[in-house]
Amino acid sequence: MDQAILTCALTGVLTNPKQHPVPVTPAQMAAEARDAYNAGASIMHIHMRSQEEGMGHLPSWDPEVAERIVNAIRDACPGVIINLTTGVVGKDISGPLECIRRVKPEIAACNAGSLNYLKLKEDGNWAWPPMVFDNPVAKVQQFLDVMQACGTHPEFECFDVGIVRSVTMYLKNGMLKPDMGRAEYNLVMGVASGMPCDAELLALLPRYMAPDSVWQTTLIGRSDIWPVHQKTADLGGMLRTGLEDTFYLPDGTRAAGNGVLIEALATCAQRAGRTIANPSAARAILGLRAR
């Protein structure tokens, strides 16, 4: 790929805005998105937070909140592509589905397989009670059905090698319909119980993907993630970062916001001899449905 699509993951799921500079309100989300857009991001990955006073560290599946945030970002960033989160534990997926139906994002994350979601403290105790991020095939299909009805392109999030291989089976099975765009894998690396953020592992993964697919990396960690971002750029993958994924710039300093993180990501692409895709080019690369 001569062009690199840059995605900004603006805020994430549970980060406490009282401890870290993550945006919560529509105005804050729009301002951070604008900085990232000006730095080259064509896609904004959106998580919604509770708008109640003092509750901004909690996620929200209120379609009204989703609509206010998405409208503010679209107003601030002409032509931007919205990528909506859908990740939820359990069988009740009514909240994410209602948000998709309300805002009709051009892209939505589609978590493509289950994972024991674990993390240890230095003393060996669990950082949180062990949990299963459950994404059985029937749940994936429910999301895909609503995405197709809403003209939304699925970005298959893969937390482990087996999930990458499962997506390839989904495609062969026909779960991705022809009008839903080009097959897209998002390789999530750095979750403690998933794929490590490892450049050598990354180089192996494209062989397990379907032909003519597009892929990107989501890299969770500190400044150690940046060599793997560079490897992504070198291998022809699409690039994502933002305050959801890291608070650290390549030199180890704390990022003041999303804009400087996207500037660093653009530098990775340029160092690999690639140009930055604008929103129009990103739509063409991904085969997004005309609106």
Topology of this protein?
Blueprint: E1 3-4, E2 6-9, H1 26-38, E3 43-46, H2 63-76, E4 81-84, H3 94-103, E5 107-111, E6 115-117, E7 131-133, H4 137-149, E8 153-158, H5 161-173, E9 184-189, H6 199-204, E10 214-219, H7 226-235, E11 238-241, H8 258-271, E12 275-276, H9 279-286
Parallel strand pairs: 1-12, 2-3, 2-11, 3-4, 4-5, 5-8, 8-9, 9-10, 10-11
Antiparallel strand pairs: 6-7
Helix pairs in contact: 1-2, 1-8, 2-3, 7-8
Strand content: 15-25%
Main β-sheet, spatial strand arrangement: 2-3-4-5-8-9-10-11
Computed structural class: alpha/beta
Q: What is the count of β-strands?
A: 12
Number of domains: 1
Rg calc: 17 Å
Name the helix and strand elements from N-terminus to C-terminus, one letter apiece: EEHEHEHEEEHEHEHEHEHEH
CATH class: Alpha Beta
- Average pLDDT number: 96
**Tell me about the biggest sheet?**
8 strands, parallel, barrel
CATH architecture: Alpha-Beta Barrel
What does this structure look like?
- By secondary structure, this protein is an alpha/beta fold.
- The chain has one domain (3-286): Aldolase class I (TIM Barrel), CATH 3.20.20.
- The protein is built from nine helices and twelve strands.
- The protein has helices at 26-38, 63-76, 94-103, 137-149, 161-173, 199-204, 226-235, 258-271, 279-286, and strands at residues 3-4, 6-9, 43-46, 81-84, 107-111, 115-117, 131-133, 153-158, 184-189, 214-219, 238-241, 275-276.
- An eight-stranded parallel beta barrel has the order 2-3-4-5-8-9-10-11, surrounded by seven helices. It has a two-stranded parallel ribbon with strand order 1-12. Strands 6-7 form a two-stranded antiparallel ribbon.
- Strand 10, helix 7 (226-235) and strand 11 (238-241) form a beta-alpha-beta unit.
- The longest helix is centred in the N-terminal third of the chain and has 14 residues, at 63-76.
- The two termini are 25 Å apart.
- The relative contact order is 0.17.
- The mean pLDDT is 96.
